[in-house]
């Protein structure tokens, strides 16, 4: 039941619009968290199956969950409202949040993140051993998840639209997260604490390059699904 206090039926429309936007933002945050975690799981699973060293130290996962996950997830919950939600069909009352299409998006996006992280891990293993491999995997996964926050702004491609930069909280989360992970990778005093090694410019470019590749690939997948 709904009670109008201002005798204005436009209030109903506004309430529905706000409710749909809020529900969408919650789903975007969940999608961001689950797809990123799925990517990390795939990397660990691959390493276990083929008999490689464990890609991540416990402190890596703690850093990811507390910083590079939480900041963009909160920012996505504050994604600006849009009116295009009113053009969507009403969802069934008994519809689960985890629909087949939703799970497919999480799976494909997680697969992309996992693939980039695994590639970084293999490059590091080949060039410098397990510590370098773990460092590159950690850096790539962290940066990939920061980049992935922009992918999760919408289920439609937004990379060439004004909407791509309309969330100042997400931009702030990205910049802060990038500064933190870069500091961990480049400041010698933090290396023992985070179980990483110093990266040269070429390896840092590998981390950033592989992470950024998630953006055009996932945006293209959104375009194809559209």
From TrEMBL:
The keyword Membrane applies. Its main location: membrane. InterPro entries: ATPase_P-typ_cation-transptr_C, ATPase_P-typ_TM_dom_sf, Cation_transp_ATPase_P-type. The keyword Cell wall biogenesis/degradation does not apply. It comes from the Bacteria. It is found in: Cell membrane. It holds the Pfam family Cation_ATPase_C. It is a multi-pass membrane protein. The chain crosses the membrane at residues 32-54, 60-81, 102-123, 129-147, 168-190, 202-221. Residues 53-223 form the Cation-transporting P-type ATPase C-terminal domain. It comes from Lachnoclostridium phocaeense. The lineage of its organism: Bacteria, Bacillati, Bacillota, Clostridia, Lachnospirales. One of its GO terms (molecular function) is ATPase-coupled monoatomic cation transmembrane transporter activity. GO terms for biological process: proton transmembrane transport. GO terms for cellular component: plasma membrane. This is Cation-translocating P-type ATPase. Keywords: Cell membrane, Membrane, Transmembrane, Transmembrane helix.
